[in-house]
Design a protein that fits this description.
- With about 700 residues, the protein is of the alpha+beta class.
- It has three domains: about 35-165 and about 185-235, 2-Layer Sandwich (Cytochrome Bc1 Complex, Chain A, domain 1), CATH 3.30.830.10; about 260-460, Cytochrome Bc1 Complex, Chain A, domain 1 (2-Layer Sandwich); about 475-685, Clam (outer membrane lipoprotein receptor (LolB), chain A), CATH 2.50.20.10.
- Helix content is about 35%, strand content about 30%.
- It contains 22 helices and 27 strands.
- It has a 13-stranded antiparallel sheet with strand order 20-19-18-17-16-15-27-26-25-24-23-22-21. Strands 1-2-6-3-5-4 form a six-stranded mixed sheet, sandwiched between helices.
- Helix 10 (about 290-300) crosses helix 13 (about 365-380) and helix 10 (about 290-300) crosses helix 16 (about 405-415).
- The longest helix is centred in the last third of the chain and has 18 residues, at about 475-495.
- About 35% of the residues are buried.
Length: about 700
């Protein structure tokens, strides 16, 4: 005990060590593992890297294509193709069947198409490698692009388009790239509802056929295998994939077209401003890239950088700010200073960032700054090569873009030799103040100083999302006549036209259960309707009670937060729901402002003069509606009628399953339904 006490006492008397006293050994020298490169008989190049540490095997096929090859009127084609290669299944299995097969053995096969490459990858335990390789082969060589999955991926993109203006950072990133690259070329294009709607399954099949062939594919495999055995397996596996196509053309070049100036995107619902300052960057093989990387690290690479120290630490303007000299393998990236600041300090924060940028162009950095930044850049190499799969992936990228295998070592050596004079030189040469674009996303009413105080005119950018095209099929006299006849058959199956027309009001108790993936919310609702278009809903949610009233021209809403006039967006939504309401919808052939059009066997499309449209599919056995399909903004909605009940001789839905963008969203169960109870407008208008 005395020895322990003495030891603790001595330890307590020792001076506390500072982190500055810590000593670290030099980083180990990076060495590339031995990678075997083989050419299969069908012309596909393969890179093999054995790694016996774990009983796993993984691989990735890199195909020379990308969304840079999208047609101007079908932007999104490559993205949808990349998802559907795997998600659309193969000749023998649907995407869902592949999911089940791979999940059972803890494996994966995935596909994606980005800007300038497509990938199809796999990951498996060694014991399941043959089964997973077979699935990988089928996904890569015989994708089926089933219509339901193509539609699902299109709906998901539409949903993303509808939300693209929600986050200031994503707005700034997107619009800054469009400013620098220009919106008249693939580097600045954006997917829109129109371009996505233009894409067909035939387009996807043609895109795949043009770019996916052996000579246009690089395959890298790493894991617990013998290279000789893997070569034999791959040769046999891909022996039948012998398709050929003309050589793929180069990707379009980036046109250097500076768009200097100050640009504003007004977003009134935010309390801080997201800003970007920059211009066109460069490529990885630029001789000045190593020095530019070090320069960017000094300028805005982390907590010790100039921008962070000044803009955040000293002035308290921004929570985050950074600088990056963006580069790509085959085309220039973007040089950016990006950050966010409270609205009042917007102009000041941008002014200080521009001042720091000018300082690094006119004065040499300190020796301490240079050394710290060089070590930061050099140390980051470790994380790019800390696993065999990362190493192989980097070598695969080098081969794909035509870089030498030892490019990393050349770059590493160049970074180590960067001098203070180099930093000043590349900053002067590559940063052109006259070509800089400044973009701010925020609420200009809250700026302490207007952006015009920066000394240049301010141009506003409109980011309004064009409305999606309404769902509407072509019609003719004969198709309209056939549509009315089909709808009249539905009326008879539901209980008769006269009985439907006699319904003047209804009251319904409904239970709605939203799926866990969509929030898991449960609601009890009382819905009441009075012809021709007065509606009242009283609902109980986990967060409280909500009541809504609408009489066709206006209304009110009462929530736990208070009472307010019914917003225009909600009025529009309720009007659309009126249009699709089951009872009046079945009588659309008698409504003067509605058109009923048969668009296929057992399917009618009903439209009105307000742009509403819904498609009803009729069950051939019962003659009753089987499902409704319509667009809610960009999202495709399907309502399946899964059960009916008979009330006063009428067959009415008692259970409905709702799908959004191809995924189950909610189930609706009708607990009680009453018809013609004598409801009045005054009764429905009465506030709780």
């Amino acid at each position: 005990m005395k020895a322990i006490f003495l030891l603790l006492t001595c330890a307590a008397l020792l001076p506390a060590q500072s982190y500055r006293d810590l000593k670290y050994p030099p980083l180990p020298e990076l060495k590339l593992p031995k990678v075997e490169t083989v050419m299969l008989p069908n012309g596909m190049q393969v890179l093999l890297l054995e790694n016996h540490e774990l009983p796993t095997i993984r691989g990735v096929a890199l195909v020379r294509t990308g969304n840079l090859f999208d047609p101007a009127d079908k932007v999104g084609l490559a993205t949808i193709t990349g998802s559907a290669i795997r998600g659309g299944g193969t000749k023998t299995k649907t995407g869902d069947q592949l999911d089940e097969q791979l999940e059972d053995i803890a494996a994966s096969v995935e596909s994606n198409i980005g800007e300038s490459s497509a990938t199809v990858s796999f990951n498996a335990l060694k014991e399941n490698s043959e089964e997973v390789l077979a699935a990988f082969h089928d996904v890569l060589t015989t994708p089926e692009f089933r219509d339901d999955k193509v539609q699902l991926f299109k709906d998901q993109i539409r949903s993303g388009i509808s939300r693209r203006n929600d986050e200031p950072q994503s707005i700034a990133t997107r619009e800054f790239a469009a400013l620098i690259y220009g919106k008249d070329n693939p580097y600045g294009w954006d997917m829109t509802y129109a371009t996505v709607d233009n894409i067909t399954r035939a387009d996807i099949l043609n895109f795949y056929t043009r770019y996916f062939f052996p000579a246009n594919t690089l395959l890298a495999v790493t894991g617990d295998f013998s290279s000789a055995d893997m070569k034999t397996k791959l040769t046999s596996l891909f022996a039948g994939w012998t398709v050929t196509q003309p050589k793929v053309p180069p990707f379009p070049p980036v046109r250097r077209q500076p768009s200097p100036g100050t640009f504003l995107i007004s977003k009134p619902d935010v309390t801080q401003t997201t800003f970007v300052i920059g211009e066109l960057g460069g490529t990885f093989d630029d001789k000045d890239y190593p020095a530019l990387q070090v320069m960017a690290d000094i300028l805005g690479g982390g907590f010790r950088s100039r921008l962070f120290s000044t803009v955040r630490t000293k002035l308290g303007y921004a929570y985050n700010i950074y600088a990056d000299w963006g580069a790509n393998y085959d085309h220039p990236g973007l040089f950016q200073i990006s950050g966010s600041t409270k609205s009042a300090s917007t102009t000041d924060a941008i002014r200080v960032a521009e001042r720091e940028l000018e300082l690094i162009r006119t004065t040499e950095v300190t020796a301490a700054e240079l050394e710290t930044a060089k070590q930061s850049v050099l140390n980051s190499f470790v994380f790019a090569f800390d696993t065999p799969s990362k190493t192989l992936n980097r070598l695969l990228q080098y081969k794909y873009f035509g870089y030498p295998d030892d490019f990393l070592f050349r770059y590493q050596k160049a970074v180590a030799s960067v001098t203070r004079a180099d930093i000043l030189r590349v900053a002067k040469v590559h940063i052109n103040p006259a070509a800089l674009s400044v973009l701010a996303v925020g609420n200009p009413k809250d700026f302490a100083e207007p952006l015009t105080k920066l000394g240049v005119p301010v141009k506003e950018i409109d980011i309004t999302i064009p409305e999606p095209k309404a769902l509407k099929a072509e019609s003719s006299g004969s198709s309209r006549e056939a549509g009315r006849a089909l709808l009249q058959k539905v009326q008879q199956a539901a209980g008769g036209t006269a009985k439907l027309a006699a319904i003047k009001d209804y009251s319904q108790q409904v239970e709605t259960q939203i799926e866990a993936a969509s929030g898991g919310l449960k609601a009890e609702q009382t819905n009441r309707w009075l012809a021709p278009g007065i509606f009242r809903q009283d609902a109980t949610y986990p967060f409280g009670k909500v009541s809504v009233f609408f009489d066709g021209t206006g209304g009110w809403m009462k929530t736990p937060q208070g009472e307010a006039p019914l917003p225009e967006a909600q009025q529009k939504q309720i009007s659309a729901e009126f249009f699709r309401s089951y009872l009046p919808l079945l009588l659309s052939d008698t409504a003067p402002k509605r058109t009923v059009n048969q668009i296929g066997p057992g399917t009618v499309e009903i439209t009105d003069d307000q742009g509403n449209a819904v498609r009803i599919t009729v069950n051939p056995q019962t003659g009753l509606p089987e499902k409704e399909e319509f667009q809610n903004g960009p999202t495709a909605i399907v309502q399946e009628f899964t059960a009916f009940q008979t009330i006063d001789g009428l067959k009415l839905p008692s259970a409905v399953t709702i799908y959004q963008a191809g995924k189950k969203f909610a189930t609706v169960t009708v607990k009680e339904m009453k018809l013609n109870t004598g409801l009045t407008a005054d009764t429905l208008r009465q506030k709780p």
